[in-house]
Amino acid sequence: MSKSFAVVGHPIEHSRSPELHHAFAQKTGLDIDYQKRLAPLDGFASNIKSFFASGGCGLNVTVPFKEQAFELCDVLTERAKIAKAVNTLWMENGLLHGDNTDGQGLVNAIQSLGWSLKNSKILILGAGGATRGVIYPLVQAGATHISIANRTIERAQQLVNDLKAHVTQAELSVLPLNDLNGDFNIIINATSASLSGEALCLPKTVHFEYAYEMAYGKVSSFLQQAEQRQVPTSDGFGMLVGQAIEAFYIWNGVKPELSDFLTLAPSH
Ligand code: ATR
To answer: Do residues 109 and 221 share a domain?
Structure first.
């Protein structure tokens, strides 16, 4: 019988995870079943309990349940503890284990583009959950300076204060989003502005060599402005594939090659 996996969220219809995991399984010769699960907003814990009770092997968790998943785990990886959010669950020795593969997914995507993270200086726009999840993996991959710019500057400051103890190898700093300036290797848009179609302004005072947009599926105002500067850009489809590959690896012990799956991206 095939091993059973699922992604749980609310809403869930839009999720591309089943398509990705089935493609990984096909490529690696594994027999898996991967479904979408819509959990009620007030019923996440019982939903995942029944999944594992009925023999499920692994779950991905998406909006809005990643923080709840973090709270429910008996055992957490270091990067999940720092992210305070979990996107990958499995049972081991009767204990619920949780990891967060989003940050490593971003690192894999950036590296597969050939953009170096070693000794890099990075500017991240946004200070929400998406930013929290990627800082530690970026530093582990070699980033030495990370500036966080946010509309609400206090939130960026809070995030830096929270993460400082965990990322001693890198310098973390804060910038107001309406006064961006400085020279960076990579700028990353981790705000939800692109999802809601709101514009962000990249002023001439900020310089960068590469631009990464975490959202995918359409060209955001962030990507348009970066393209006008004629720097290499990417949307977040590679990060989506990257986080899925890391989850697949945790559950199955086999790591598919990211570049084999980028052609699954929808054209804009
Ligand atoms: P996520 O988990 O995706 O990071 P979140 O925690 O709601 O979502 O955070 C959303 C981020 O996008 C925040 O940094 C938010 O800025 P504020 O902290 O000031 O709210 C940012 N954001 C959302 N809409 C934005 C916009 N129109 N312009 C600039 N930043 C925006």
So the answer is: yes
User: What is the predicted pLDDT for the residue at 195?
Assistant: 82
Expressed in angstroms and rounded, the spacing between residue 175 Cα and the centre of ligand 1 is: 14
User: Which residue numbers are catalytic?
Assistant: 66
Q: Which of 14-23, 148-157, 215-224, 246-255 bottoms out in mean pLDDT, i.e. has the lowest?
A: 215-224
Query: What whole-number distance in Å separates Cα of residue 131 and Cα of residue 188?
Result: 9
Last residue of a domain, one of 100, 125, 141: 100
Q: Atom 5 of ligand 1 has which residue's CA nearest to it? A: 128
Pair 223, 115 in one domain: yes
Looking at the fold, whether 45 and 171 belong to one and the same domain comes out as: no
Residue 265 sits at φ, ψ, to 5 deg, of: -65, 140
Q: Count how many domains the chain has.
A: 2
d(CA 251, CA 89): 9
Asked, as a colleague might, if the bond just before 64 is cis with ω within 30 of 0, I would say yes
Give residue 223's domain range.
Answer: 103-238
Is residue 150 in contact with ligand 1, taking CB distance under 6 Å? yes
Same domain, 143 and 95: no
pLDDT tens digits, one per residue of 214-268: 999 888 999 999 999 999 999 999 999 999 999 999 999 999 999 999 988 775 5
CA 12–ligand 1 middle distance (angstroms):
21
141 alpha carbon, distance to own chain's centre: 15
